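Quick bug: 2-methoxy-6-polyprenyl-1,4-benzoquinol methylase, mitochondrial output formatted oddly.
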Amino acid sequence: MTYKTRNMAALWCVSVRLGRVCRCSNRIIASRRNLSEHKSSDETDKEEGTEKSTHFGFESINESEKTGKVHEVFSNVASKYDVMNDAMSLGVHRLWKDRFMQVLDPLPGTRLLDVAGGTGDIAFRFINWIKEKELQQKKASPGAEFRLNPLETDDSESAPDLEFPSAEDYLYSEQREDTTGTDDRKDSKVIICDINQSMLEVGKERAKKLGLEDDVVWVTGNAEELPFPDNSVDAYTIAFGIRNVTHIEKVLCEAYRVLTPGGRFLCLEFSQVSNPLLSSVYDLYSFQVIPVLGELIASDWKSYQYLVESIRKFPNQEEFAEMIREAGFRMVSYENLTSGVAAIHSGFKI
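Here's what came back:
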């Protein structure tokens, strides 16, 4: 065999092996991103009567264990949660949440349910957004009066007619039509529902400092079994919370149930980065830096390691959008933020 022939044979062997490695790697990546394959390889069939397993970060656990483990994580990080968000994202999470509220674009009279919103970031933005809208309405109609009060209504006054320039606003306007001659829904309301009391306590303290303690109703509840009646809220938001639940599909169905017809579901969550170069840098930062920050700032490496791993286990943008559709929502769409590091998913109950 000549030198040239041996080289060609060697190159062929290397290319074959590389091809096998790439195919194997692609299968691993695909399996990580496919929600249906997020179970351990030793999970037995339902027919055998054993408990189903789910993921807790990269760990496989029984479904009955996840709620408790997630509860423990957020109890541990509650006091440093907002500080860590700033440190981990270099403050970018604030811009994401501002954009989130811009997409929601609520009008005075909107009843918002913010799930997994314990520390109040989304609810407080909602309140400030509504107050700004109220000022704009007052300037346009000096005699009009709007209030943001979750507990009181006054049936003696009628809300002024509003203009709804967009399709989304039109959907909201339909639920404000008043056939009785009175309107008891002109007061905006915001309810924060979180399964973790420690997170709610942090939010309440923040609300006091901001002078917003009377503007929010705080409820301890599970996103998979919301303690609210059907068709009771106009908007449902969940930010950086849905990836931590045991059954995403149950959360989506509950969101659909409590929303009024025409109501909007909006979710802000970490997602999958499509740019290979950015993805590599993001992975390096996530696994090598964030847990270290967790240890330095919150003295808790393990909880922040879980948070990083939970992001990798969450469905990608298209998969999550399909889950939202399967729950019954229409006009489903999503917007990538920072090249897909996070994404805003939207859907309407029609």
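Actually, after a second look the formatting is fine. The domain at 47-150+163-177+184-348 is CATH 3.40.50.150 (Rossmann fold). Closing.
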